[in-house]
Amino acid sequence: MERIPVHPELPPVRIEKIVAGYGASILIRRWAATIIDWLIIAGLIGTMIYYNRLIITLVISGFILVYHLLIEGFTGYTVGKLILRIQTVREDGQPPGFAKSLLRTVIRIVDTNPLLFGALPAGICVLATQKKQRLGDMAAGTYVVKVSDLDFKTMGRREMAISVILSALIVLIAAVPNVIAWKITGYPAAELKSVVHISQDGKFQITDHHRFSTDKATMKETDANIAVRQLLFGKYLTIFTYSKDEIDGNISLEDFHLSLKDLLLNSSTTIIEENKLHINGYPALELAYWGTQNGEEYAYIITTTETSDHLHQFYALMSKKDYEKYGPEFREIIATFKEIDGEK
After folding, report:
1. Cβ(239)–Cβ(314) below 8 Å
2. Is residue 220 classed exposed, middle or buried when 0-12, 13-18 and 19+ CB atoms within 10 A define those classes?
3. Which of 23, 80, 92, 136 could be 36's S-S partner, Cβ–Cβ 3.0 to 4.6 Å?
4. Better-scored residue on pLDDT, 64 or 8
5. What is the pLDDT of residues 168-193, one digit of tens each?
6. CATH 3.40.50.2020 at 195-339, yes or no
7. Which strands sit side by side in the sheet containing 204-208, from one edge to the other?
8. Per-residue pLDDT for 10 more than 60?
């Protein structure tokens, strides 16, 4: 029986010999490839933040998590590596596979993290080690090799086409939405377009300058009149409206506010501040406090106001550590609240 020819593999000794002969040029290529990958991920995060939609956030977050783990794991390439013509391989010259890629990806958090020493540990390791490996490569037993040195394995037309198409698609996903956002709103300029959120009954509105999205799920679950959120940053604003005729036509704003205060405050909450103010000419009372929910510490800004026929409660929720940063944003949005009955 005729033997089926087996594609030859590159012996481990030869891979080690190849990388041992590299000078600083391999570091330059790896660094340039890493910069390209960082820019792509930054573009994806920019898309996620700008559009602020749950499905977009979930899809992009999932893609970022598997970008190195799966794509590099099973092809040896990222977009940056494909452009710079380098590839991650095992000692037999094949792509790392899932297990080795998982190790490299986890350790990437330490040695190739732009927010942690700016990927300096990876650069030092590549220059200092004989096999030109970063920490992740050492742990996983992988190498980054110039594609031209893998002469035994020539990329076929189909494999090349798939890699190029996939890379182009990734670049488009990272770049195009940000270009559209920049053209529409001047992104990333500081001044943003205003968005008006109208209540379910069509009688009230708030104006938002901070790209909150409508939270239909909360409106459905709680029967809120308006609910908006920035899911990525854990910021939520919910507005409840009560007809004075339905609760008690004689109840005062102060009594309504005090009853709410008694309901919300307990031994695990701490008052930050209380204020009397006006919202578009309507008298209002504000209570800001810290509390714990599901083991997490949150800051709440509860504002109560009244119009001629209604009482309104604003519930602003954010992480306790973000109170000083996001509190002014919530107050700015709440200050835009107004009746629109008869203006349509």
Report:
1. yes
2. exposed
3. 80
4. 64
5. 877 777 777 777 666 655 554 445 56
6. no
7. 195-198, 204-208, 338-339
8. no
Both tokens of 46, joined, read: 């920019």
Q: Cα separation of 85 and 90, whole Å?
A: 17
In angstroms, the CA 49 to CA 5 distance is: 52
For 208-229, the pLDDT digits (tens) are 988 888 898 899 999 999 999 9
What is the C-alpha separation between 319 and 291, in angstroms, rounded? Answer: 10
- DSSP class of residue 148 equals G
The ranges assigned to domains in the chain are: 12-185, 195-339
Which has the closest alpha carbon to 94: 28, 12, 19? Answer: 12
- Give the residue from 199, 192, 151 showing the smallest Cα distance to 343: 199
- 38: which 2 tokens? 């960082």
Cβ distance 330 to 318 under 8 Å?
yes
Positive or negative torsion for Cα 31, 35, 36, 38: positive
Q: Which residues are CB-neighbours of 245 under 8 A, at least 6 positions away?
A: 309
The SS3 call for residue 8 is coil
Secondary structure of residue 175 in the 3-state scheme? helix
